Structures are given as C-alpha cells and as structure tokens.
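TA notes. Do not distribute before section.
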Amino acid sequence: MSSWFKRKEKGIQTSTEEKKDTPKGLWYKTPTGKIVESEDLAKNFYVSPEDDYHVRIGSKEYFEILFDNNQFKELDEKLSAKDPLKFVDTKPYSDRLKAAQQKTGLKDAVRTAVGESMGKELVVACMDFSFIGGSMGSVVGEKIARAIDVAKKKKIPFVMISKSGGARMMEAAFSLMQLAKTSAKLAQLAEAKIPYISLCTDPTTGGTTASYAMLGDINIGEPGALIGFAGPRVVKDTVGKDLPEGFQTSEFLLEHGFLDFIAHRKELKKKINLYIDLITNQPLRK
C-alpha cells in the first residue's frame, strides 16, 4: 500500500508538500503534558492556565512582574567574571563564559536593580538559570553584596530571587567565599533593621540554599519549586532510603517549617509589598 493511502486511512488530508511546521516558540508544553500558547503563557505571568505549572523564568520576567511599569535602574550591569584559576574541564572557563554571554545576552548569573514596586522603592536581585545553571561565582556574590549596600544606604527593602544549581565549580574557593560574603552583608542589613525578602524558585540548591536563599526575614517559595542543598537523587543514594513523596518541594518545606509561605506568581508583587507594609508599619497599598 502506498504512503498516500496510509495517510488517507488515518484521516490525514494535507499533502506532505503543503504541511507547514508550527513556528518554534509559539507553543509551550508543560511537564504534565499540557500545551499552552506562548502568548497566553506570558499574559498569565508564565504560569500554565491548564495545570498551574510555574514555568522557569529569568530576571527579565521577574523585573516585569515586580517593578511598576517595568521601570528600574540596573546596578553594576557591566560587571563580568574573570578566570583567575585558568580552569579547564571540557573547555576553558573563559570560553564557557563567552559562550554563555553570547547565548543569553547576560553578563553573569544575576542581575540587580532598584525601582518602585507599588509606589515604593525596592532593590531586587534576581538569578538567571540560563547562565551556566545559575551558578554562584565571584560576580554573583559581588553584585548581591553591592545591591545590599544600596538597600542599606537608601534604607529600602531588599528582595533576593534565587534560581541556582549552586556554587560555580570553575571558580573553586572563590565561589565558596561568596557564601560567607553575602551572609555577612545580610547580617549588616539586619542590624540596620531593613527588611530582606527571599524568594526561592525552581531550582534553589547547593551553596545558594546554604547562604542567602534561606536567610530572609521572610522566606517565600513558588509552587512546586525544588529547594534543597543536595538533589533528591544524591540524598537517596547517601541515606540509602526512599524519600517522602514531594521531598524538597516548596510544599514539603512549608510543611516542615523552612518556608513562611508559598506565593503564586500572580500574587507575588502584592504579597511581597504586603509584608513590607506590615514590617515597616506602613499603610497597606492597593
């Protein structure tokens, strides 16, 4: 039987020559199998309306969500990493940096900015997983530290949005030093009685979790986000036991007291500002 008759039997009327592929990026398929138009996804804060799945997004999208009219001043936007160890794995670290910068249009795995959110100033630092897995290197630590300094100087709240695979192995000890550095800066912010809100998104792991991600005056998670130090597979191999259902999800951490609450992305801006209003004894904003 010819291929034409096989197609006819299956109800396929369009000839191969006439078939047109769907433009790349027009549709998005969630892990649960739901298909969503990319345009509808963007309008819905990058949350699938079919199954409420929170799609991974980066600093560009979070800044749009949090800052009024997407107006903000980016801080230290040209800061870029060096290669002090001349590190080489499958390729030189310097080449890996250049490739990531060209692919993403970012300088490193975090962007920091200051702007108004619901009418009041806010400093926001947001990680980008697309840049070498959101790994924390010297530039990430330095930009976060400088952003905290701005919040302290201007006496305005600081928001940290984490999305990271952990410390950047290509910078070895230089990367690990950022855990202590950022934690010390946050201690200074606490001494100045300036609010610090930490938002943990999917995934928040490794050295990021072991430092600034879990040090917030209030710790928030996004629905279904993976949050932990080592991944579930590594933990299971280490302890040799089956893990509880939903282990290391936002919901699991909330139940066990590691998070204060889980915020749906549609409510994120409102919830963050509500907390700031309460802690600073300000009139509630609508």
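Switch to the second chain here.
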Amino acid sequence: MKKNDLVNVIAEKAGLSKIDARKALDAVVNSIADVLVTENKFALAGFGTFTVSEKAARQGINPRTKEVINIPARKTVKFKAGVELTSRVNE
C-alpha cells in the first residue's frame, strides 16, 4: 500500500476529504518523528513501539571493488508490533 492508498482509506473510514485525510496523516507521521528525535521512543498502545537505536561505526567492503570502506555511526528506527496488531495479523 502506498501513501495515496492510505489517504484514500482514511478519508473513506473517517468521512474526511482526501485533502483533510492527507493533512491528518502527515500530522501523525511528523508528530511521531518529532517524538523520536526528542525522546527516542514512541509507543501506541495496541499498535506497537518505535525506538531509536544507534549503530556503531564499522568497516565494510565494497563488493564491486573489494575496497575497504568506513561506514559511519548512525541512528536507525526499529518497530516492534504490539500484541493486538500481531494477533489481528495472525487471524
């Protein structure tokens, strides 16, 4: 499913226009991102938890040239599905 498809589903289920549904979706996504930047964790009961984890710098190998490269440290976002979401997917 793409973002436009999700906007259409939100608009239909919430009785909103597509413009309002897109604004709502963007607001939710941006709010989650803001929380992750400041607090490193966002939990939505029944849905799941987003957490920020740090990956250390490391060396890698370019598979094409076999050259050793340095991969810098970075942050990444992980998601763990909640119990309700997991059980609904497994129905």
